[in-house]
Write a structure and sequence with these properties.
This protein has 292 residues and is α/β, with parallel strands linked by helices. The protein has one domain (7-288): Alpha/Beta hydrolase fold, catalytic domain (Rossmann fold). Helices cover 42% and strands 17% of the residues. The protein has helices at 7-14, 69-75, 101-114, 127-138, 161-173, 175-186, 194-205, 209-221, 224-230, 247-253, 269-272, 274-288, and strands at residues 20-22, 31-36, 42-48, 54-58, 81-85, 120-125, 143-149, 235-240, 258-262. The protein has a 9-stranded mixed beta sheet with strand order 1-2-3-5-4-6-7-8-9, sandwiched between helices. It is globular and about 50 Å long. The termini are far apart.
């Protein structure tokens, strides 16, 4: 879904009489729209279904909203669902110099406010977990809970400047080739579907290098522990066992954070095991919002 500066998006830009553009629903009942983030970047999203809490899905690094299709199709039967293309990703615009987690959080806030959503559960995968932690801080009156997906696995972890440079140097030299090889090597398990692995690796590698490099620097510098401690709403982790989760470290920052693990899958549990993921997400939403 790496589509940018298409005629349809140009038309949307020309029609922006306000901060929000709504298109006609497609045959599945999904409606697409475009909003402007606070810094002027156009942010594309889609929505379907009805009912609160609204589930807002935020993708990870060099991905897009299509990675959540198995969730938006499923949960639209019981909730309003929204899936966002963060700035610089999918069908959203470029033009930002520094692709920070806070700026991405502003993208999510722009969509939520433009749609007039009052009670949302933010669901963020990988980098999207950082993004929704930031979004929750800048719109606390609208966010009821967070579900962090295969992220915040070890909030004690730190990356040195030397380690970061060693990781980024090959990406600077060959973003596409290095990214595709890294995704294949590090983000899946032996039983992962080879066709899915190939599709995700190629798709992530096709993203704009400038966006990917800037965002990756900001991911590696992000203080997950401080972000978790600052959250005032309930939090559930739904992680794969590809990377072990240091739940003790997370609970030192936020004592009531809870964890569910999907075994035997890679970094994309919502795509590799969608039925189990959807079951765990439904349970998380019910439990996180239960009266206390």
């Amino acid at each position: 879904m790496k589509i940018r500066n298409t005629p349809s998006l140009a038309l949307c830009g020309a029609l922006l009489a306000s901060n929000l553009v709504m298109a006609s629903p497609d045959t599945t009942g999904r409606t697409e729209g475009t909003v402007k983030s606070p810094d002027g970047v156009e942010v594309r999203y889609e929505t379907a279904g009805s009912g609160e809490p609204v589930l807002v899905f935020v993708h990870g690094w060099s991905c897009d909203r299509s990675y959540w299709r198995a969730q938006t199709d499923h949960f639209a039967a019981s909730h309003r669902v929204v899936a966002v293309d963060l700035g610089g990703h999918g069908e959203s615009g470029l033009g930002r110099k520094d692709w920070t987690m806070n700026a991405f959080g502003g993208d999510v806030r722009a969509v939520v406010e433009a749609l007039g959503l009052r009670k949302v559960v933010l669901v963020g995968h990988s980098m999207g977990g950082h993004v929704i932690a930031e979004a929750a801080q800048i719109m606390p009156d609208r966010v009821a809970a967070l579900v962090l997906v295969d992220t915040f696995t070890d909030v004690d972890s730190r990356v040195s400047a030397e380690q970061l440079e060693s990781f980024l140097a090959p990406m600077r030299a060959d973003f596409r080739g290095t990214t595709e090889a890294w995704v294949r090597r590090r983000l899946f398990v032996g039983r992962s579907d080879p066709k899915l692995v190939a599709w995700i690796a190629r798709d992530m590698a096709a993203g704009p290098a400038a966006v990917g490099l800037s965002a990756m620097v900001n991911i590696r510098r992000y203080d997950e522990g401080a972000a978790l401690a600052a959250l005032k709403v309930p939090v559930r982790l739904i992680n794969a066992d590809l990377f072990s989760t240091n739940l003790e470290a997370a609970r030192r920052r936020k004592p009531n954070v809870s964890l569910a693990v999907i075994p035997g899958v890679g970094h994309f549990p919502m795509m590799e095991s969608p039925d189990e993921f959807n079951r765990l997400l439904a349970r998380a939403v019910n439990e996180l919002l239960a009266p206390r």
